[in-house]
Amino acid sequence: MTGEGARERAAFRTIADIPFLQARLRGEKTAIVTDAGDPLSYAALDDRCRRFAAFLRSRSIASGERVAILLQNVPEFVVSYFGAISAGCVAVPVNYRLSPPEVAYILSDCAASVVVTTSEQFGKVAGQEGVRGVGNWLLVDDRREGSLPFGDALAVNPVPAPAPAAPDDVAVLLYTSGTTGFPKGAMISHRNTLFNVDSCRATLEYREDDVGLLTLPLFHVTGLHSQLVALLACGATVVLQKEYDTGQVLERIARNRVTALFFVPAIYKLFTLRNDIGRYDLSSVRIAAYGGAPMAPETIEALNRAMPARLHNCYGLTECSSLGTVLPSEFALTRSESVGLPVPGTEAEVRDADFGALPPGEPGELYLRGPHIVQGYFGAPEKTREAIRDGWLNTGDIARIDGDGFVYILDRAKDMINRGGEKIYSLEVENVLYMCPGVAEAAVFGIPHPVFGEVPAARLVPLPGAKIDPEEIRAFCRARLADYKVPVQVGIADRIPRNPGGKIMKKELRREWESRSQEEAR
Fold first, then answer.
1. Residues 6 or more apart whose Cβ sits within 8 Å of residue 235
2. CA–CA separation, 229 vs 236, rounded Å?
3. Helix H or strand E encompassing 69
4. Nearest in space to 58 (alpha carbons), one of 169, 165, 163, 159
5. Burial code of 135-157, b = ≥16 C-beta within 10 A, e = fewer?
């Protein structure tokens, strides 16, 4: 049975309609599968969401108040997300990897009325300055003084239907990673989110009979909107995984007959490097989406041998509700450095510093416009005006768009290296480094120089068992790049710092380099 036309497609007006209407169309079908516990049907998911909504009303939590969710990929996250929105509240997924002061900042900034979390996080965060206004702490695993067990929220009679909401009402606050200062809460509406659902249908071709494996964190826009919400809106099944482990991922794909994946390229490369890849049945996978970095052609070819999937390079950000561009699978190899075309119904342009549109091929700042652009940043009108102008979102990325409309990301605007007036786009250098034998991951960033201002440096992560010689790496680059683009220093490490969306944190790399330089100078 295929998704298109197999059953009636629900017409969603709000995010809360997804579990509510799907329960009436396909109530007994499995919606959520987890590592532990029984699968959750659409009917059971809807019932729990409406019970959670009723609990919020019983606690006098009004429409528009914020409900923070500080959890890993567990069913309680899904129930809290849809349940909060069903009550007319704003769901605020929070990165559980943040430090307690960072979490406290977000809870204070959004003035959260309710926090759903674990006893461990409660112990770390509840006493922090700035969270005194949180009146309701719900713990999914224990009961502590000053909190309630999450089960209490499911013990009340469910509301009959989700609270009325307008498509442009803010439904979700998603906080940016905060790599350039304090995180900002992007205000995402029902319309924004449901447009992204349509984008996933049109470009990734999600359908009702899909089974999606969700390992990306639900506090991130990709896992939340382009996997959980989009797949459930299609009537598909979502397999939740709390923490990433390559062997467990491959086992889950085989056991659950997973059809849809979404990872960063490094994860797919780990798949292809396993000597035992052949023992896992990956024949069910038909969609392998990726983002955050380009995928090397040899990795694409190895994936094509391992699974019969269509590969899609995706580009997006929180401020466009997830997907901004998608590369059609037929171009995965021939245009491997491209992030594809704007999703249907949207526009992409490259502009100069004066907001003037640039011709095809010219590099500049990438702007996006369409129904996926968020309303702005919560409580920050000045930052909103800086980011969104006449409906155009400044992505902060340097890009070029070719004559066919394909977008190529060159660098973050703040990460572009200016060597004595010569612009170096780190992605160009990283693509060459990925061609070097033994390299698993690569990151290029600028370091200070007394004459040129800054010059390129690189950090590499070797493949398992591989040995990397920095001078051989530099020689490899000299044969393929202009001399000023060759990294002056090459560091070898076991990790490259990334944010939850898989993007390399260049600021942290520069900070680590400066710390090492200061230590060596002593």
1. 3, 7, 9, 10, 22, 25, 26, 29, 42, 208
2. 10
3. strand 66-69
4. 159
5. ebbbbbeeeeeebbbbeebbebe
Q: Kindly report each contact of residues 436-442 with a partner whose C-beta sits within 8 Å and lies 24 or more positions away, as own/partner.
A: 436/460, 436/468, 436/473, 436/476, 436/477, 437/466, 438/462, 438/463, 438/466, 438/467, 438/468, 439/463, 439/466, 439/468, 439/473, 440/266, 440/269, 440/273, 440/464, 440/466, 441/266, 441/496, 442/496
Measure the CA–CA gap between 11 and 120, rounded to whole angstroms. Answer: 40
pLDDT digits (tens, 9 = 90+) for 443-480: 999 999 999 999 999 999 998 889 999 999 999 999 99
- How far is CA 271 from each of CA 156, 266, 268, 280, rounded to the nearest angstrom? 45, 9, 5, 11
Q: Give the other-Cβ count within 10 Å of 100's Cβ.
A: 15
CA angle 280, 282, 287 (to 5 degrees): 150
Cβ(185)–Cβ(170) below 8 Å: no
Q: Calculate ∠ Cα 439-266-246, nearest 5°.
A: 115
Residue pLDDT, tens place only, 475-486: 999 999 999 999
Q: Are 137 and 153 in contact (CB under 8 A)?
A: no
Q: CB pairs under 8 A, 24+ apart, for 514-518?
A: none
Global pTM exceeds 0.70: yes
C-alpha span between 255 and 148 (Å, rounded): 36
3-state percent breakdown (helix, strand, coil) of the chain, nearest 5: 35, 25, 40
Q: How far apart are CA 350 and CA 430, in angstroms?
A: 22
Query: 237-240 and 211-214 as β-strands: parallel, antiparallel, unpaired?
Result: parallel
Measured CA angle at 57 (ends 51, 59), to 5 deg: 105
